[in-house]
Amino acid sequence: MPSTYPNFRHSVAWLILLMEAVFIVLSYFFASDVDAGFSYPDLQAVSHMLVFGFGFFLTFLKRYSFSSTGFSFLIVILGVQCSILMENVSVLLTEQSLSGTSGAAMSMVAVVISIGAVLGKMNPIQTIAMIVVEIVAFYVSRWINIYLLQASGHVSMMHVHLFGAYFGLAVSSRLSEPPPRSEKNASTPRSDLLSMLGTLFLWVFWPSFNSVLAMERNRAIFNTCLALAVSAVTAFALSALITKDGKFRMTHIRSAALAGGVTIGYAADSIEHPWIAMLLGLLASAISILGSSCLQTCLPTLKTHDASAVHFTFGLPAVFGALAEVVSYVMKIQTTLPSISYEVILSVGAPCFTISAALITGLITGLILNFKLLKPIPVSKYFEDQMYWELFEA
């Protein structure tokens, strides 16, 4: 295997250049104005989340930090270009953009969440193939949500957490599992500190993310700030309560501090009372930590290795947020509609469809990634920077 990897790395370089050439050619033929309402501050906030937030968030593996940050950066810059092309296709097919360049960058959150589930288990060629398939699948899912299930552009974008988490878990289920107590599949205080730095970036910029497509932006920002604050406080409290020695556990804080922002995203611009946003933040953090403790034993039976705990950081809080949005909608229309209406059924169907689409396309993608043409890496080479990066001893 090592003797063939120089040629393999060269093939990665040629693949990247080929993809860039394809993007340029397709942009020539399919270019359109998708940014009538372009806002650079919005794009800047989302870019900070993608590059700094998720880039550092995924550095917890002690021997995979170069790949976590470096490949995340490569994935983002390639994926955003692919997302912009999908926006152009949307303009050609429907004569209107789904969300513009800022939305194209927001769509990449699904990809980086999925990468967290398969972190360290795929080579760059497999990763590039996965992001292209996932971006196309996510945009098709959004089109169906908006035009068939009548979801708003904001709500359909908030499904990015659902789609990313369950797509990544489905792909991971098709990959070989690492040994349960692999020495490489572990963190160090330094890697945990870098990962916590990524969490802090995400925590700070999450209100901007939730408000980009919201109708009531100031309300969305305010509610998200409240939910994030309460979820972070709850994370500290629950972490100390459930550990045997009463000490805080970094993995709890790193994951549950963001849960409130994920959950509140669906209804951030429609919640009128601050205490509701705070309650959702508290419950989201509890679901993240307690779900991690209670359901962790179920994953081995499902043959799913969740490298970054994306199920408990993004998946379960997003499911809870989608349910909360449906309940909020029902409460608003109950005075005018005496029974469950067609609109309520559609609002329930949208997240259910998103999860189903993510699982099905993820399973198919996982099967494709096992083709020998993509050169899957053996389990013994999981979680290693030296496969791809030039390293120097200190």
UniProtKB/TrEMBL annotation:
It holds the Pfam family Ammonium_transp. InterPro entries: Ammonium/urea_transptr, NH4_transpt_AmtB-like_dom, RhesusRHD. SUPFAM superfamilies: Ammonium transporter. GO terms for molecular function: ammonium channel activity. Keywords: Membrane, Transmembrane, Transmembrane helix. Residues 15-381 form the Ammonium transporter AmtB-like domain. The keyword Transmembrane applies. It is a multi-pass membrane protein. GO terms for biological process: ammonium homeostasis. It comes from the Eukaryota. The chain crosses the membrane at residues 12-31, 43-61, 68-86, 98-120, 127-148, 193-209, 221-242, 274-295, 307-324, 344-371. It is found in: Membrane. GO terms for cellular component: plasma membrane. Belongs to the ammonium transporter (TC 2.A.49) family. Rh subfamily. This is Ammonium transporter AmtB-like domain-containing protein. It comes from Bambusicola thoracicus (Chinese bamboo-partridge).
